[in-house]
Amino acid sequence: MSELYPLKFETVLKEKVWGGNALVTRFNKAATGSLHIGESWELSGVADNQSVISNGFLAGNNIEELIEVYMGDITGDTIYENFGDEFPLLIKFIEAREDLSIQVHPNNDLAKKRHNAYGKTEMWYILECEEGSKIYTGFKDGVTKEIYEEAVSKGRIEDLMNVENVDAGDAFFTPAGRVHAIGSGIVLVEIQQTSDITYRIYDWNRKNSGKEKRELQTDLALDAIDFNQAGKNKIRLNPVLNKTVNIVNCEFFNTNIIVFNIAIEKEYYFNDSFVVYICLEGEFLICWDNKTEKVTKGETVLLPAMIKEVTLKPLNETRLLEVYINSEIPS
Q1: Which of 113, 105, 63, 69 minimizes the C-alpha distance to 86?
Q2: 82 and 162 in one domain?
Q3: Measured between alpha carbons, how far is 216 from 218 in angstroms, rounded to an integer?
Q4: CA distance 120 to 190
Q5: Least buried of 56, 89, 109, 239, by fewest C-beta within 10 Å?
């Protein structure tokens, strides 16, 4: 069996009524005629949206086919035991030219019961934002189920939301059950469980291309909401040059920020997991086993679990996200 290597994927652009063109013009996504690209799916195991490898001898195969053949060498043995051929994370770039709908995602138990699927815990890392841009995340303190239901009936759900101003470099962690929305003028990276289940609660009375209001799922949303998910939620940290700094560490994923201008040695013997690198600024080389792979701004790369040592060599100052699942090496 041929040796594995850092894998790149064909991105899939998704048109959205609230999208724009920043992902094409500033993050090097493939040109398109649409001016409303809301999402670029970078790495996906979602059914009917399987990411396809774009580099090396495995080009043309999708992620599920790859895991079927290489199993734990791709994802890690423990992760393969838990998820089988399904890749457990979904990585996206998102641009919101308008406010997105206020929504909520179910947890694993509810998603399995209703949809035979995984729930959706996610995080956002803000890449760009206009002055005054906002994130809607969780409720204000003291919102009860009864207060919420009354606000929904009157179309005033936004009055209950905790609203936070954002700057580039901010992050937000959104567990399943936390009501949320991305505000207008924001470009971000989203890291989430492999799930495409969203319950839309309020959509600003926006109409779709057919001039009808978009469908809401307020009945389904009610049981999914965790009313204890309230209050401030912004994660603001200052990266330390040439150091790995943690942003979010949860049961579903661990995300670090690395800003570097010298070569960095990375070892992953502590963990039984793949690693994902998301290049936010600059460009760098992944060096392993006397081979290299160049990564540029806007690219996402999957480092198979079997590769435990790499050197990251910046070609100029580079900013990237490092993502993996906490999974101890089996004894």
Answers
A1: 63
A2: yes
A3: 6
A4: 12
A5: 109
